[in-house]
Design brief:
Helix content is about 0%, strand content about 50%. It is an all-beta fold. InterPro entries: Ig-like_dom, Ig-like_fold.
């Protein structure tokens, strides 16, 4: 089974926002949506535009279970 999923957001000095998703489990597959629209799949972290605003969801699944976590994202300062 998949452990708890945590999503964190960081803003770099170059203006890139990065969302990172962490979880525990075997053979995890990650997918992302922003306001319900699919983003690039496959990685535990994803780069976003600095002006990204809305709800970002990280979905983690494997052969045993499926967990997702949604957080609110605001544009980088």
């Amino acid at each position: 089974p998949i452990g708890s999923v945590e999503v964190s957001i960081s803003c770099s000095s170059s203006g890139v926002m990065r969302a990172s998703c962490s979880s525990e489990g075997d053979q995890l597959l990650y997918s992302w949506t922003l306001n319900g629209d699919p983003l690039m799949d496959g990685n535990s972290s994803i780069d976003l535009d600095e002006k990204t605003d809305g709800n970002i969801c990280c979905s983690v699944k494997n052969h045993v279970s499926h967990v997702q976590k949604t957080i609110r994202v605001k544009p980088c300062p």
